[in-house]
C-alpha cells in the first residue's frame, strides 16, 4: 500500500501537521509506504500563477496517480480550508482522486469550525472524484500540544482515540481496494480463456 500525506498549512509549525505526523507514523508501523508533501514545498509563484507545468506539481500528480490513498490535513481559517491547500488541489486534474481512499483531517480554534470539513474540504475532494472519502477527524487546537525539547507532541486522549479509529478505517479501506490488473496479464488471460457461446 502506498499513501500520500498532504499538509495544507502554510505555517512552519501547525497543529494539523501534528495530526498528520501521528497518522504517518501509525501507517508506517502498519506496513504502509508513505510519502509526505506540504503546501510549503511548492513555490508560491507556481501556486498563485497556476503553473500546471511546475516540476513539483508534475511530481505531485505522478505520486497521486500512483497512490492508493491520501491523508489530507488542513487548519480551518475563517470557516474554510487553508487557501494554499485549495490552490494546490485546484492544480490536480478533475479525476485525480478516482480509485483513491481519502482521509480528511482538520484543526480549528473551536468546535464551531467542525463543519468546515464537510462544507469546505469534502466538496473539493468529491470534485476530484475520490472513490471513498472517510468521515474524517476534526480537532480543536486545545487538544494538541506541540513537541518541546523534553516531550513529543501530544494529543488529548479523546482525540487520539478518534484519530486511531479513523486510521483503522482508512487502513481497512485501503486493504479492500481492488487491485488493477496489469494490461499485459489481462491480455494473456483473455487469449488463454475458453470461450463458449
From TrEMBL:
Alphabetically ordered keywords of this record: Flavoprotein, FMN, Oxidoreductase
Q: Which residues form the NADPH-dependent FMN reductase-like domain?
A: 1-141
Q: GO molecular-function annotation terms?
A: FMN reductase [NAD(P)H] activity; oxidoreductase activity, acting on NAD(P)H, quinone or similar compound as acceptor
Return one Gene Ontology term, BP aspect: alkanesulfonate catabolic process
What InterPro entries does the annotation carry? Answer: Flavoprotein-like_sf, FMN_Rdtase-like_dom, NAD(P)H-dep_FMN_reductase, NADPH-dep_FMN_reduc_SsuE
* Recorded superkingdom: Bacteria
Q: Does the keyword Oxidoreductase apply?
A: yes
NCBIfam families, from UniProt?
FMN_reduc_SsuE, PRK10569.1
Q: Which family does it belong to?
A: Belongs to the SsuE family.
Q: What is this protein called?
A: FMN reductase
- List the source organism: Pseudomonas panipatensis
Amino acid at each position: 500500500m502506498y499513501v500520500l500525506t498532504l499538509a495544507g498549512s502554510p505555517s512552519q509549525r501547525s497543529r494539523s501537521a501534528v495530526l498528520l505526523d501521528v497518522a504517518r507514523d501509525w501507517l508506517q508501523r502498519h506496513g504502509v509506504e508513505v510519502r509526505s508533501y506540504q503546501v510549503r514545498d511548492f513555490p508560491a509563484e507556481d501556486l498563485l500563477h497556476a503553473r500546471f507545468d511546475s516540476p513539483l506539481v508534475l511530481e505531485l500528480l505522478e505520486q497521486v496517480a500512483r497512490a492508493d490513498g491520501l491523508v489530507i490535513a488542513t487548519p480551518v481559517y475563517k470557516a474554510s480550508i487553508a487557501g494554499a491547500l485549495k490552490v494546490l488541489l485546484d492544480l490536480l486534474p478533475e479525476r485525480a482522486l478516482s480509485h483513491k481512499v481519502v482521509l480528511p483531517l482538520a484543526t480549528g480554534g473551536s468546535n464551531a469550525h467542525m463543519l468546515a470539513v464537510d462544507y469546505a474540504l469534502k466538496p473539493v475532494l468529491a470534485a476530484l472524484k475520490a472513490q471513498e472519502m472517510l468521515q474524517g477527524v476534526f480537532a480543536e487546537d486545545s487538544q494538541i500540544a506541540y513537541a518541546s525539547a523534553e516531550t513529543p507532541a501530544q494529543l488529548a486522549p479523546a482525540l487520539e482515540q478518534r484519530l486511531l479509529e479513523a486510521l483503522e478505517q482508512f487502513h481497512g479501506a485501503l486493504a479492500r481496494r481492488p487491485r488493477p490488473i496489469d494490461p499485459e496479464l489481462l491480455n494473456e488471460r483473455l487469449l488463454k480463456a475458453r470461450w463458449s457461446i
